[in-house]
Write a structure and sequence with these properties.
By secondary structure, this protein is an alpha/beta fold. It has 2 domains: about 1-150, Rhodanese-like domain (Oxidized Rhodanese, domain 1); about 150-270, Oxidized Rhodanese, domain 1. The chain has helices at about 5-10, 70-80, 100-110, 120-125, 155-160, 175-180, 215-225, 245-250, 265-270, and strands spanning about 1-5, 25, 50, 90, 115, 155, 170, 200, 205-210, 210, 230-235, 260. The strands form 3 sheets. It has a 5-stranded parallel beta sheet. The chain has a 5-stranded parallel beta sheet with strand order 6-12-11-7-8. Strands 9-10 form a two-stranded antiparallel ribbon. The protein is globular, with a radius of gyration of 18 Å.
């Protein structure tokens, strides 16, 4: 599910008619609080197309980055030229930040040939490969057919029922200061704290130098949080984006029962009737 820059370069060097040549997608989502000057938004992998997470989110939903319905995702994926059997490589301009969310979008909708560029565009540049300054146009409309796997998702009621339930573990990947309510939430009207009974593994702990850490180190992070392979893990974050980093890390470690709480803290912290812990 991860691909290195050298491997991607080899695939892109194949003739355009080669069925192994992937469609490359890039996300430019900025981390919360980051300025345009602090991130590179001008270098892209040649032939890459933009996957705009905001465009692939419900515009009328009460909480940010809410996933699209299967029919809306299918329509937008086709507009990117995605076919049912397309090979897809997703990347982002941070390294590992929003690319796992893009990967999760496709994985949720039934695409099974999707990889994440480990290290993203920074790794591509560091390898000395040519960059482009524009996204590539879409040559033809695709025929992708979405088949949503709802068992990869959790809503607030599912999470509420999972609190302290044997065999289930809620993992919050926000930073520790937000998890323990030591700093205000960046979104107005959202309480500080965390879901009772949840464990905190900040998403940055899964990453080193913009790349996923080796599997042995990822496994130790989950063990330290009390996770076991027989448990179901539910991942939460601020708005459902970086939760997918934890999801991918667990997938790399061989965990089989995984879900993303798409509403995440933007929803949980905004609804007064849901319990909040600070300890």
């Amino acid at each position: 599910m991860l691909i290195e820059a050298t491997q991607l370069q080899e695939l892109l060097n194949k003739p355009a008619t080669d069925t192994q040549q992937p469609i490359v997608l890039c996300s430019l989502l900025r981390p919360v609080g980051a300025s345009a000057e602090s991130v590179n938004e001008v270098d892209f992998i040649p032939a890459a197309q933009q996957f705009d997470i905001d465009q692939f989110s419900q515009t009328d939903a009460p909480f940010p980055h809410t996933l699209l319905s299967a029919s809306d995702f299918e329509r937008k994926a086709r507009q990117l030229g995605i076919n049912t059997h397309s090979s897809i490589v997703v990347s982002d301009n941070i390294g590992i930040y929003s690319a796992p969310r893009v990967w999760f979008n496709f994985w949720l909708m039934g695409a099974n040939k999707v990889q994440i560029l480990n290290g993203g565009i920074p790794a591509w540049r560091a390898a000395g490969y040519r960059c482009a300054q524009d996204f590539a146009p879409v040559s033809a409309t695709g025929n992708f057919c979405a088949q949503e796997n709802s068992q990869l998702l959790a809503d607030k009621d599912y999470v509420l029922a999972a609190i302290n339930k044997p065999g289930m573990r809620i993992i919050d990947v926000r930073g520790a200061a937000r998890f323990y309510g030591q700093v205000p939430e960046p979104r107005a009207g959202v309480r500080s704290g965390h879901i009772p009974g949840s464990a905190n593994i900040p998403y940055a702990n899964f990453i080193r130098d913009g790349r996923f850490k080796p599997v042995a180190e990822l496994q130790e992070l989950f063990r330290a949080a009390g996770c076991t392979q027989d448990q179901e893990l539910i991942f939460s974050c601020g708005s459902g984006v970086t939760a997918c980093i934890g999801f991918v890390a667990a997938h790399l470690c061989g965990y089989q029962k995984l879900r993303v709480y798409d509403g995440s803290w933007a929803e949980w912290g905004a609804l007064d009737y849901l319990p909040v812990a600070l300890d």
